[in-house]
Amino acid sequence: MFADTTFKKFTIAEKDKLVGRLEINDNLIANNKFVRPFIRNIESKMITKVGNRNYEKLNTYIINSMNDYYNRLTNNSSVSEQQMMLSTYRHLYEMWRDLHTYKKNNNLVEMDKTYDLFSYELYVLGYSEE
Predict the structure, then answer these.
(1) How far is CA 107 from the centre of its chain?
(2) Which long-range contacts does 52-56 make (Cβ < 8 Å, 24+ apart)?
(3) What are phi and psi for residue 19, nearest 5 degrees?
(4) What are phi and psi of 7, to 5 degrees?
(5) Per-residue DSSP letters for the chain?
(6) How far out from the chain centre does Cα 6 lie?
């Protein structure tokens, strides 16, 4: 989304003991003009990652969301909606295949990028991890 972006790195400490690390994308936080809003409330910012990812939880979230989206596609949509939803579902499925390729090749950087993009696209479709 932002080419050559460097993240500002911060450490969080309590009583001189390291509690965590934080990376912030200044370009993303400063930009509030998206086609579909990334941050719904422009006045507030949300930390989306602190520490390590729970890949198992992310996989469950993605699978459940894709299953629900497929059920909506096949059961509750008109013919015109089905074409649009089918193209979206194919795109999500291609991302899922790419994700497994990155996992197989132990390409952690691309895997994390794909998880981020997957989470964002599902968020835009109305899904959340909670």
Answers:
(1) 17
(2) 53/112, 53/115, 55/115
(3) -105, -30
(4) -95, 135
(5) --TT---EEEEEEETTEEEEEEEE-HHHHH----SS-SSSSTT-------S---HHHHHHHHHHHHHHHHHHHHHS--HHHHHHHHHHHHHHHHHHHHHHHHHHTT-HHHHHHHHHHHHHHHHHTT----
(6) 19
For residue 33, what pLDDT band results from cuts at 50, 70 and 90? Answer: low
Concatenated DSSP letters of 77-103: --HHHHHHHHHHHHHHHHHHHHHHHHH
Distances (CA, A) of 36 to 40, 100, 103: 9, 27, 29
d(CA 28, CA 2): 8
Percent of the chain at pLDDT exceeding 90: 27
Residues 94-130: tens digit of each pLDDT: 999 999 999 999 898 899 899 989 989 999 888 887 6
